[in-house]
Amino acid sequence: MGRAQAPDPLKAALEAAKASDPMVRRQAAESLGLSRNPAAVPALEALLGDGHPFVRAAACDALGLQRSRASVPRLSAVLSGDSDPRVRQAAATAFVYIGDGSAAGVLIGALKDSSPPVRHASMRALGKLRAGGSVGALAAVLSDPDASARKVAISALGEIASRESVPALSSALSDSDAGVRAEAAKALGLVADPSAGPALTGALQDRDAGVRVQAATALARAGDPSGLPVAYAALKSPDAVTRQQAAATVGLVGDAKGLAALEAARATEKDGNTSGMMDYARAQLRARLGLPDKEPVKAPAKAPAAAPAKKAPVKTPLKTPVKAPAKTPAKKVNR
What we know:
Distance between the termini: 109 Å
Helix content: 55-70%
CATH architecture of the largest domain: Alpha Horseshoe
Order of helices and strands: HHHHHHHHHHHHHHHHHH
Number of domains: 3
């Protein structure tokens, strides 16, 4: 007898996409996305009109996994018109996976969505797509009262890395929120435009240590070592991320003094990730200064275990022999 033929997973998922149970349809959408088979795209697009939001969201995710450029118009309609914010958010995220810049227009429109998660997802997508035409719209978000929105917009501008964003990012260095100011300094470092130099130099005096070290790093990316004193101080920060950032700055533009500062910081560092960053920065700096790499410190060889000392034999006290009782002679019986 021949063996029974194994069921076709794609065919089974396509059938499940028509099931009456919405949970089954959702699972089918996930399976169709993971299949990476273009034959699944029509069924997934049909699920974008499903009556249940979690099925529509799963279909958006799956079309993103499929990298289906042909589905950009359908997903654009979802982002601009679906009634559920979770579905609109999933549509915005799908554009990141698809990587089609033609979605920039609908993503810019979504920056005015009523749902913060949809707006945030759209800003992140514009950054990942490096949509240069969105700089003005993203810069406008820097006046949003929500600090988290301002921070996401700045992060997106940093990824786009357009000179057009320098004035807005420089202004953001005066934001009331330290996290926003630090993100602005980081973004200016990614843009790496010399016109940001004065604003970043001013940020070296910021009251927040995280902002100062980000400004020092941004200047270092442009080859400006003026932030090194800030970086040296930050190597002693109680915050591990700040120490890592400081080490990266010293590695970029440090000198012999910077190498000594890294050596001293590395000797007392206990965080594993920070130690790795300091090791990398030291190697980078030594290479730039033309110094040979140091031999790695080898752990001392273990001394052979000493043989256990022989124990002195334990003397057992002599026992006094017990004398057997004297035998009493048997009495003679007179017969």
